[in-house]
Amino acid sequence: MTRLRVAYNLACRHNALLSVVFITSPVRTLQVADGRTVAVAYTHEVQDISAEKSKTVEHEFRQWCKLHDVRYEWTMVEGEHIKVLTQLSHYHDLAIVSQSDPRNLEEMLFAELPDQLAMVGSCPVIVLPHGQRRMVLGRRILVAWKETVECSRAVRASIPFLQQAESVTLVSREGGKEAARSLERIANTLRLHDIEPGVRMPQHGARAAEGRVLEYARETRADMIVMGGSGNSRLRELVLGGGTRRMLTNANVPILMSH
User: Fold this and answer.
1) Please, what's the b/e burial string for 192-230 (b: 16 or more CB within 10 A of its CB; e: otherwise)?
2) Whether 123 contacts 91, CB under 8 Å
3) Distance between CA atoms of 171 and 203, rounded to whole angstroms?
4) Which of 133, 140, 171, 250 is the most interior residue, by most CB within 10 Å?
């Protein structure tokens, strides 16, 4: 429900169309030892549970929309989550998903992880931290800058948020003189959009700067981080880790990410 509340507030703030998609996964039949299929009763039970949950969520959603003049649409789709969301991303400006539950092994290993949508979808994604019921985002924004295509796209996508923010802070995810020059250049670009950012020059090496993004977020009391997704392969990140994986696992503030 947190996703609905955040999406609803953003739609009101930006006078946007709120599109809610309730996705049900296809029911797969179970095979017993002698080869027979256990399907009918199991399938009906799962479908009934999904239908009931959909009705509950849809009712609450429509009640919220009645309180304010907001355009909205509701869709219920059956399919694989990542495939459905990827297709829908072609026709939307922003997607809102939730961080994977780190205590749920099945979700971490087999479910569609949130950052996959940023990697394969067409629109930027806001990833909400797991377990937080209420949050306000976009008042104090930290831009974790790195001179990459992915980060540049994320910054462009975040401009409507940056223009409305009370404060914007830029910090480099790399260290060194080149990173400092790049940081000042993106600051100048934002100023052309009437955004006056604060600039935090990294005092450590590239590895330390990458790892301190969440620390910078705490220091600036940021309620949203803007960053680009990693270009590493999914298998490499799952086995070896990576900046995107670490951020999505450890972040306790929403992340706007693009690829």
Assistant:
1) eeebebebbebeeeeeebbebbbebbeebebbbbbbbbb
2) no
3) 11
4) 171
Average pLDDT estimate for 85-102: 87
Scanning the structure block, which residue is given the tokens 């690829």? 259
What are φ and ψ of residue 26, in 5° steps?
A: -60, 140
Integer Cα distance of 124 and 248 in angstroms: 15
Using alpha carbons only, what angle is made at residue 148 by residues 207 and 118, rounded to the nearest 5 degrees? 95
In what helix (H) or strand (E) does residue 199 lie, and over which residues does it extend?
strand 198-200
Quote the tokens at residue 257: 């990410």
- 3-state secondary structure (DSSP) of residue 57: helix
The token duo for 52 is 């009931």
The reported pTM is 0.80
CB 224 within 8 A of CB 137: yes
List of residues 6+ apart from 34 with CB closer than 8 A? none
Rounded to the nearest integer, the mean pLDDT of the chain is 79
Query: Which residues fall within 8 angstroms of residue 165, CB to CB, at 6 or more apart?
Result: 138, 139, 140, 141, 195
